[in-house]
Specification:
The protein is an alpha+beta fold. It is built from three helices and eight strands, in the order ββαββαββββα. It has a single domain, classed as Transcriptional Co-activator pc4, Chain A. The chain is 27% helix and 45% strand. A hairpin with a 6-residue loop joins strand 5 and strand 6.
Length: 142
């Protein structure tokens, strides 16, 4: 299942592969997801494996849904290990500013900072993808 933000200058893609620990005994351990991140900007790109929590997607989806509904405001994707962080800020003209950074946790000096633009139709599509991810990979409570 893939989350993708298409931008004028490239894209941010997060492929959610699976729950990392299906036999977890605590809610915290049960909610880690194996993911594959790909980012492309005008001149740079990067790909890496990362672990995100179901709550990361749930929180972002709630924020992004509000942005899509009102066509204003901002939503932020943040992860516990700081492997990927970005914000989507909707402007009054329908343009979305996306800024953030990707950090390969296993290579702490490897960071890609990015700033791109998108539009409300792409952000609406991203929101639909997020809804599918949060439905397929819900927050587990044990």
């Amino acid at each position: 299942m893939k989350l993708e933000i298409r931008c004028n200058e490239g894209f941010i893609s997060i492929e959610v592969l699976e729950y990392e620990n299906c036999s977890a005994e605590t809610s915290e351990d049960a909610n880690w997801l194996s993911c594959y991140v790909a980012i492309k900007t005008d001149a740079f790109s990067g790909e890496y494996q990362a672990s995100f929590m179901t709550e990361d997607f749930m929180d972002f989806q709630k924020q992004l849904a509000a942005v899509v509904e009102s066509l204003e405001g901002s939503a932020r994707f943040e992860t516990m290990e700081n492997a990927l962080q970005f914000s989507v800020e909707m402007k009054s003209n329908g343009e979305a500013a996306i800024m953030g950074h990707a950090n390969a946790v296993n290579a702490p000096r490897t960071v890609l900072s990015f700033s791109m633009t998108s539009d409300q139709s792409c952000i609406t599509e991203t929101n639909a993808q997020l809804q599918a991810i949060t439905t397929t990979f819900p927050v587990k409570t044990l």
